Amino acid sequence: MDYNSHTDGVVRAAVGLVNTLTPGERRGRPYTPPAGDLGGAATNGLRAVYPTHRAVVESEGAELAEVATRLRVVFAAIADGDIDAAAEQVNLLLEQTAARPMLERHDGEPWHLHFHGPGGTMAGDWAASCATGLAIVLGSEFHDRLGVCTAPHCDRVYVDVSRNGTRRFCGTACQNRVKTAAFRARSKTDQP
């Protein structure tokens, strides 16, 4: 499931930012972004997709945490089956960031599409890019490829890039937790 390389990247970056910068639950345990190291958490979230991304400073990390909180609303709305609320949140982000497509060439790469203009803040540029990427997904037949992990005690988000579009978990750790719990439950009921 590929939209295009840049759209795929910014949607996966949105996932990385939401999962590293928003509190909730992860793999069966409470999750809180590291206090005093939002820059490091944001760096990890972005480098999961863009390995050479520069380190994010703490002030930028705090701004990106605010963006991630707003992006989480989109994933939660989709998980609740409320595509209208997801679209309204994305439209609000697009309007507030003045997102606009622009072809750019940098770092020895060929011309490619960016969704923000020059001179913005790092958080503002990522907000515009992530909102545009999510808008492309929401405006397609693949909006159900965005989701929130269905494992108990996990609310991390994901984008399903599998062929059959049946992903339900943020990762294999949660998938394995659920399968193990189901196996143990079956084993208990099978005992005399």
> Structural class, from helix and strand content?
mainly alpha
Query: What count of structural domains?
Result: 1
CATH architecture: Orthogonal Bundle
CATH class annotation: Mainly Alpha
Mean pLDDT across the residues is: 91
User: Could you state the CATH homologous superfamily?
Assistant: Jann2411-like domain
How would a textbook summarize the main sheet?
2 strands, antiparallel
Strand neighbour order, sheet with most strands:
1-2
Provide the succession of SSEs: HEEHHHEEHEEH
Unreliable spans: none
Distance between the termini: 46 Å
Quote the CATH topology. Answer: Jann2411-like fold
Number of strands: 6
Estimate the strand proportion. 5-15%
- How many helical stretches? 6
The gyration radius over C-alpha positions equals: 18 Å
Overall shape: it is: globular
The helical percent reads: 40-55%
